[in-house]
Amino acid sequence: MIDLTLDMTQYDCPFIDTTDDHAVSFTAMQWDFDNRSQQLETRMLVEAPDRSALDDGLHALADHDHMHTLELLSKRGDRAQVKTAIGETKAMGTVREYDAYITGPFHIEGGSETWHVGVDDGGLADEFLAELERHNEFGIDSRRTYELGELFDLLRNAGPAISLLEGCRNLSTVERETLSTAVEAGYFNSPRDANLAALAAEFDISKTAVSKNLRRSQQKLLENVITAMADLE
User: Fold this and answer.
1) 221 and 128, same structural domain?
2) Given 22, 76, 167, 232, which is the most exposed site by the fewest CB atoms within 10 A?
3) What CATH number is associated with residue 217?
4) For residue 204, what are the domain limits?
5) pTM here?
6) Residue 154: per-residue pLDDT
7) Cis link prior to 191 (omega < 30° from 0)?
8) For residue 18, which of 104, 100, 80, 94 has the smallest C-alpha distance?
């Protein structure tokens, strides 16, 4: 299996057009192509900086020429869940034509879309990309070949992977920045290339404060690492 991560710009996608003009993002929870109606049906999570921006984005999406139906399922503050139906885009038609398949959620923000696409062999992947380029612009963020054993490993260990993701998401912005800076500066090297005083100076806080931020970030991550290790196949 060839797994491709693409940074896509489609010219006939209402979600991309909406994020190009409004401060909203869309993440697909579920999608399905209806052969009878030739429509792509999706459930999307919608995020915005505030409620006003969310409302503006949803109104623009509903009014888009390529949007067939939009149903608001729930909304709270600056987030919403919607069910939509659009006509088949040229890119999705290419996915179906080359028997490719979606391997991860779409994420659409700032006028472009992250795609995760699987193709069964390398030759077909090259043909698929060449055809995709005819009507769309995209960059290849990654291209990886998975052997059969690796695929089974990924599927069996989805739970531990989610635990690790949750650990990363549980970090506050300060904790994430402190830990990243400590790693980049060589705080965890042996011998250390940076000490607490250097990190404290970087953030303009006391050594005690930076030490607390480091301990909190490490504790949050390690708790999820231990959970993931216990669940590994």
Assistant:
1) no
2) 76
3) 1.10.10
4) 157-231
5) 0.65
6) 60
7) yes
8) 80
